């Protein structure tokens, strides 16, 4: 039995190492290509024959008609920050209402919200586009923020699960002292929800930061200065541009991942605590 366990452990570790290598190879290729001394795709060598940081200089300091990375980065950052703030507020308020308040139809609304949230968002994109077009908010960063934030309250389940772990006696004591519902939310419940708030902030930030499909659908005027990073980088892979801009595309892809990596490193402890805490109750 001991021999079988050892063999099983070795096979499992070999399989895991293989999966890690397969997962890391594309990322490693993107990183090394971003530091290459040539612009196009070099299929003959995995590692470049010459190294340079010129691709990063081009992305950051030498914009042209194709590369306007700093503008794209700014657009994406503005959309992500405002979406993050609005979505986090919506989710926290909806979660508090479902977790800490009792009202008629509460369970039915929760069930309906969960079912509605199961439908893929792609199915509604065409309808959303025509609604936004009718009110003149396509090709608009404000329209993007509204679309990203509007349905965020449906993703309340994990935050509600975390709030369910907070003892009801704390809210009752505050209510006896004369605290209003709003004061209980801001002064009693919210300070105890720091891990799940961090989780929600990161999740809300990631949605617009890495989104391509909705951004491509909404920002379709062809004005490159209005694009997000995802659309701008995708444009570099055009057949007529890829041989001149692929290494620059890799450099841009590497740069756009840095803020998210830093955010995860700084807030990892709270993020993990939020996820595990929110999974205790449903």
How would the blueprint of this fold be written?
Elements lengths: L1 H33 L19 H8 L7 H32 L5 H13 L6 H10 L6 H10 L6 H7 L4 H9 L4 H9 L4 H17 L2 H6 L10 H7 L6 H37 L4
What does this molecule look like?
The chain is an all-alpha fold and 282 residues long. The chain has 13 helices and no strands. Helix 8 crosses helix 9 (181-189) and helix 10 (194-210) packs antiparallel against helix 13 (242-278). 28% of the residues are buried.
pLDDT < 50 stretches: 278-282
State the distance separating the first and last CA atoms.
40 Å
| Main sheet summary | none
The percent range for helix content is over 70%
Q: What is the 3D shape?
A: globular
- State the total count of DSSP E strands: 0
| Overall average pLDDT | 85
Beta percentage is under 5%
Helix tally?
13
Radius of gyration: 24 Å
Going by helix content, strand content and strand pairing, the class is mainly alpha
Order of helices and strands: HHHHHHHHHHHHH
Short description:
The chain has 282 residues and is mostly helical. It has 13 helices and no strands.
Considering the chains and any ligands shown, give keywords for the structure.
mainly alpha; 70% helix
